[in-house]
Amino acid sequence: QVQLVESGGGLVQPGGSLRLSCAAPESIFSSYTMGWFRQTPGKERELVATITIRGTTNVADSVKGRFTISRDSAKNTAFLQMNSLKPEDTAVYYCTAQGTWRTYWGQGTQVTVSS
């Protein structure tokens, strides 16, 4: 069973920042595109950002300019730096590892943006 271990969620005020982390097994991290999705109750899961093993990134328009995805091969960890957070960013954020044949999902971490 592949485990993606997420951390870094929490409560933050509007305009604040959080950094999410996602640790993966080396065998997965070295060959899979890493990404983040988010979901709020009653809505479909939404792509936030992805980063390939070469470092090519794709960021949703709704967070472009505020969120940055990165990956650290030495730590087998992907990061989502979230700045200028808005209440509408409130969601459960899921880490993913996307391969040719399957996608692995983390357990999710709650991000709440509220004053």
Please give a structural write-up.
The chain has one helix spanning 26-29; strands at residues 5-7, 10-12, 18-23, 33-39, 46-51, 57-59, 67-72, 77-82, 91-98, 103-105, 109-113. The protein has 115 residues and is mainly beta. A hairpin with a 4-residue loop joins strand 9 and strand 10 (103-105). The chain is globular. It starts with a strand and ends with a strand. 30% of the residues are buried.
Beta-strand percent range:
over 45%
Query: Which word captures the global form?
Result: globular
Which oligomeric state applies?
Answer: single chain
State the separation between the terminal residues, measured CA to CA: 39 Å
Spans where pLDDT lies below 50 across 5 or more residues = none
Structural class, from secondary structure content? mainly beta
Radius of gyration: 13 Å
Largest sheet: 7 strands, mixed
Mean pLDDT: 96
How many H/I helices? Answer: 1
Report helical residue fraction: under 10%
Order of helices and strands: EEEHEEEEEEEE
In total, the number of strands is 11
